[in-house]
Design a protein that fits this description.
Elements lengths: L25 H7 L29 H14 L26 H16 L1 H10 L13 H13 L17 H12 L1 H15 L10 H10 L4 E5 L6 H10 L3 E2 L10 E4 L6 E4 L4 H5 L9 E3 L2 H13 L5 E6 L3 H17 L9 E5 L3 H13 L5 E5 L15 E7 L10 H8 L15 H11 L8 E4 L7
Parallel strand pairs: 2-3, 6-7, 6-9, 7-8, 9-10
Antiparallel strand pairs: 1-4, 1-5, 3-4
Length: 465
């Protein structure tokens, strides 16, 4: 097994996109494109290899490459046969290799997403260097070759560093592909150089659409949103702990600076912290004691909407793809609402329709138990198979639907998938919006079988047109 290793977080730096920029256009280009760095007093041109980090990356353990390859295989863009020169085999929906280490899992998803973003460029490099032709690399290993190739060019085609005194797990399949590509480093570097000359850019980062580059830059400076778990604490108690730990409370997110926080204007139980402040929050024990939970703000909108429309004597039904944290947040807000209304005799229940594997059900149950939620009931089976005459569902007044979608509105999809998708971690960037739940609800309501006083909330993380 891999002992504690140095897995670097590769933060992409904005770079000048064009190889040459006329002096007369400098001011205009800087005003129109905030991603471009100033070209005044520019340093000498960078070496031909891609530079994306302050230090040269050291590579990853073999198991990271295998997990990244499986994610890429399940989500890569399948081109029409007439335009397909690089083949990745016919297998889709591969089971993901088990990786328990959180750092390694995050590194694998980062690597897979970067490979997906640059799939066209990586295929151009393979074609230009003839790696796609047999007998170079078999089709069923081409996904592994793609993720290793991305990592190889990211570390400037330098061999992977192996730390002395650390025992590394050796996986022959990954080592074989890496050794083969390393042996072709000169040819691959030349192919990359030709591709960059073709696109007239200094960095392949600039080949990406401007909207993608803006989203990528935004993900590095997003604030942290954390909701208060009323099952274990209260908003006043959490704010008091933060202030006693040296945090200062400001009026709005625009005033966040240093060790500070503020209340979110849309969700009453949500606190906002500056980016990069998570290590300092860990020292307060609020996160480890599950009194405060960091989660994407979008995930807090659904539970808060449910709480705002739920009547005094009503239950909630959750359907779709969500994490145990979202279930716990919903249960926490529902319980808090009944406490403030002094209506403890009619405690609402949050019913959760769990489809998929038993592992997903156990994962949600474990999170709910850890968060101290006792008003949650998991229901096996799919949404459409629920018995509408079942007595336990007669008090349901709000249905919260969160379908699988492309996540095109998410700035940091890796963080979102790792935290939110739970057992559905194979979901990546190429999925389309899943409309089956919405269509079922529409048919169900038109048939007159759904009570008119049930509120349906339909939430998606995708740009919807």
């Amino acid at each position: 097994m891999v002992k504690k290793k140095n897995i670097q977080v590769r933060t992409k730096q904005p770079s000048t996109c064009r190889a040459t920029t006329p002096v007369s256009q400098i001011a205009e280009s800087e005003a129109l494109d905030p991603l471009k760095e100033s070209t005044h007093h520019r340093a000498p041109a960078a070496p031909l290899e891609l530079q994306t980090t302050d230090e040269i990356p050291q590579g990853f353990p073999d198991r990271v490459y295998l997990l990244a390859a499986a994610i890429f295989q399940n989500n890569h863009l399948q081109k029409p046969a007439a335009h397909r020169l690089v083949n990745y085999g016919k297998q889709r929906g591969l089971p993901l290799p088990e990786v328990k280490d959180e750092e390694m899992r995050r590194a694998a998803y980062e690597l897979a997403f970067n490979t997906l973003k640059y799939q066209d460029l990586l295929e151009d490099i393979m074609i230009d260097s003839c790696l796609h032709l047999p007998p170079s690399i078999p089709d069923d290993e081409m996904s592994l070759a793609a993720v290793v190739l991305y990592d190889l060019q990211d570390r400037k085609f330098m061999p992977r560093r192996h730390h002395q005194g650390q025992t590394e797990e050796i996986i022959a399949e990954a080592r074989s592909i890496e050794n083969y590509l390393t042996g072709c480093s000169t040819k691959l570097a030349a192919s990359l150089a030709r591709c960059r000359i073709k696109h007239n850019v200094l960095s392949i980062h600039c080949i990406l659409p401007r909207s993608v580059r803006i989203k990528q830059g935004r993900s590095n400076c997003l604030p942290h949103y954390a909701w208060v778990n009323t099952m274990k604490s209260s908003l006043d108690e959490v704010q008091a702990v933060l202030k006693s730990s040296g945090f200062s409370q400001v009026k709005s997110a625009a005033h966040l600076e240093g060790q500070s926080f503020c209340r979110d204007p849309h969700c009453g139980d949500l606190l906002v912290f500056p980016a990069g402040l998570k290590p300092r929050l860990n020292s307060t024990n609020l996160l480890t004691d599950h009194k405060l939970t960091i989660q994407d703000k979008f995930c807090s909108l659904g539970p808060n909407l449910v709480c705002s429309v739920l009547p005094a004597r009503g239950d909630v039904l959750m359907v779709g793809h969500f994490s145990g944290l979202t279930v716990a947040h919903t249960a926490s807000l529902v319980a808090w609402k009944h406490t403030t209304q002094q209506n403890s005799n009619n405690q609402s229940t949050v019913y959760v329709c769990v489809s998929g594997t038993e592992a997903r059900r156990q994962e949600i149950q474990q999170v709910v138990t850890t968060m101290g939620c006792k008003n949650v009931k998991l229901m096996p089976g799919v949404f459409q198979s629920l018995d509408r005459a079942e007595k336990t569902l007669q008090r349901v007044r709000v249905i919260l639907l969160t379908p699988r979608c492309s996540m095109s509105a998410v700035s940091d999809p890796v963080q979102f998938i790792l935290q939110e998708n739970g057992g559905n971690r194979q979901t990546c960037t190429k999925k389309s919006l899943d409309m089956k739940y919405l269509g079922w609800l529409i048919r169900f309501r038109k048939s007159g079988m759904m009570k008119l006083y049930i509120t349906n909330l339909y939430l998606t993380h995708a740009h919807f047109t």
